[in-house]
Amino acid sequence: MLNYALSRLLTFIPTFIGVTLISFSFIRALPGDPIQVMAGERGISDERYAELAKQFGYDRPIYVQFWEYLTGVLQGDLGNSFVTKRPVWDEFFALFPATLELSICAMIFAVALGLPAGVIAAVNRGKFFDRALMSTALVGYSMPIFWWALLLIIVFSGNLQWTPVSGRIDLLYYFPDPTGFMIIDSLASGQKGAFVSALRHLILPTIVLGTIPLAVIARQTRSAMLEVLGEDYIRTARAKGMSPGRINGIHALRNALIPVITVIGLSVGTLLAGAILTETIFSWPGIGKWMVDSIFRRDYPVVQGGLLLIAVMVMIVNLTVDMLYGVINPKIRKR
Amino acid sequence: MDDALSAEAEMVQDRPGRLREFWFYFRENRGAVIGLWIFAIFAFLAFFGPWIAPHDATAQYRAATLQPPVWQDGGSWTHILGTDPLGRDMLSRLIVGARYSFFVGVVVVSIAATGGIIIGLIAGFAPKWVDSIIMRIMDIVLAFPSLLLALVLVAILGPSLTNAMIAIAIVLQPHYVRLTRASVLSERQKDYVVSARVAGAGIFRLMFITVLPNCLAPIIVQAALSFSTAILDAAALGFLGMGAQPPTPEWGTMLAEAREFILRAWWVVTFPGLAILVTVLAINLMGDGLRDALDPKLKRS
Fold first, then answer.
1. What chain B residue is nearest to A28 in terms of C-alpha separation?
2. A80 has which bridge partners?
3. Rounded to whole angstroms, how far apart are CA atoms A323 and A313?
């Protein structure tokens, strides 16, 4: 196991350097000179330009620049935003809890509905429930989520007036945010109505972001369950006279969960990609919206740093999933 | 005795061809056949859209802006699905828009699949260190969430439908590389490949004529699935303003233009998204059918 873990860790290093190189070179390839962009409408004198180029190190060879960037990254220095002048690192981790809160809620939503749906479909294989659930799952899987968001806004915010259209909480409320998770902080602040407001803001984005993972989990659970239900030990359990509920719920589901957990782990990338659209539509102040805004504002250090941090995060999650999988399933380690 | 033998021989000769066999299994899946029909209609609209559409897709009927569909108060048969804020006919825009999505799917899948298959074959046949380098590069591309990477690529190349297609193709490519490489590695061990090599087949013949045809089944399924991913991603980029630019009647771009009217005119938002959903759903249904028909492991169950 230790060998497996070490070899997986070793492949992490070249991938990390590659990811850094890609996000570094993207910015050099973006149209427009970063210094001109920073100078804005007024323009800039040649002396000042040279001074700034020297300050940011743009006058040095590209490989020196990359080396400095890489060593900076390893020390948590991703440069400062052109727009706010604040360190990219600080901005990222100030906004990250918002995305994390939304993603966790979306994942809970997806698992809470997807697992039972998959199990019910598998147990009723070929019957009405199976077909109905799997058709629904396929529709969810094919859903353009930006359109799904707009539809939900039309129905729940427009016609029924149940949910707000944007933001994390009504402007009425203001309280410190030690955890950055709005539902926890609003509860801790003790202000009347703050928690309900936060919850109502969270509902639609959660559904939108959770839809595709929900469909994937339902489909995956069904096929994993079907595979397990064909095993000999299930037949033995049945022959012993064990109740179907116990067989399906305990014997089958527990073993079917292994591939499902992998799928849950691997959908972190999907969640982050979905967060870009969901956060933009609901004006959710998280990483996704921040990235889109920065791309439009040509805020290069932010795009560069955000891209890198997101990729590293996806890599760490994938690595963890791989390791966990190695722990659960010894066959994997041998390869 | 003789009769029985010859009957058997005849049966062997009558064994259906690969295509017939495939169609036999594909037809069993009702959803897949429905998907195929919808896809056929979609392809037809993509080719002949501008001649079928009742109006010019960019003509602005200023007298009839934001007119609701025919079954609502204020609707008329001239504009069956209503008009958008600039008075353009929704139905015509949707019909003409089919060709952009179809085009995106075809181009993206061709680029991604061709590139991916070739790189995958090289990785499967090349010495170990080349293989390692290729797979590490693919890992790097896969570490970025696909839509984010496509978004940044388009920001670099400049927002347009062509650049969106290139970006999506680059993002989808690693899946083909991994798939091809995995099948090549398992096929390479088999006796028929060894005997071809012993018979003196060159490396290119081994790659493209001996091994590749036997690796195609999962790649075809992947192609169907990434066709729908390409359409979804291109629409998402259009929605974010980084894909096709107005006044192109691309479905995602139409949604972006309609966003501010969602609470006043539901039809400008509902129909383009519905078009995307139905198309993607049809292709995914087809993809599921393809997988069941092509995957020999599932055939028996």
1. B156
2. A87
3. 15
Distance CA A146, CA B272 (A): 12
CATH class given for the domain over A88-333: mainly alpha
Work out the widest C-alpha separation in chain B, in whole angstroms.
85
Closest CA relative to residue A212, chosen from B147, B259, B223, B122: B147
ipTM for the predicted complex? 0.83
Residue with token string 């570094």 = A24
Cβ–Cβ below 8 Å for A138 and B284: yes
Whether pTM > 0.95 for this model: the answer is no
- CA triplet B56, B60, B61: central angle to 5 degrees? 105
Q: Which of A316-330, B136-150, B190-204, B246-260 has the lowest mean pLDDT?
A: A316-330
Domain boundaries, chain A: 88-333
Q: Domains in chain B, ordered, with CATH?
A: 33-50+80-294 (1.10.3720.10)
Among candidate residues A170, A262, A177, the one with its CA nearest the CA of residue A220: A262
Determine the distance in angstroms separating the CA of B135 from the nearest CA of chain A, rounded to an integer: 10
Q: What is the pLDDT of residues B21-44, one digit of tens each?
A: 778 777 877 888 899 999 999 999
Backbone φ, ψ for residue B17 (5° rounding): -65, 170
Q: Which helix (H) or strand (E) is A16 found in, with range?
A: helix A2-29
CB within 8 Å of chain B, chain A residues 149-188: 150-151, 153-154, 157-158
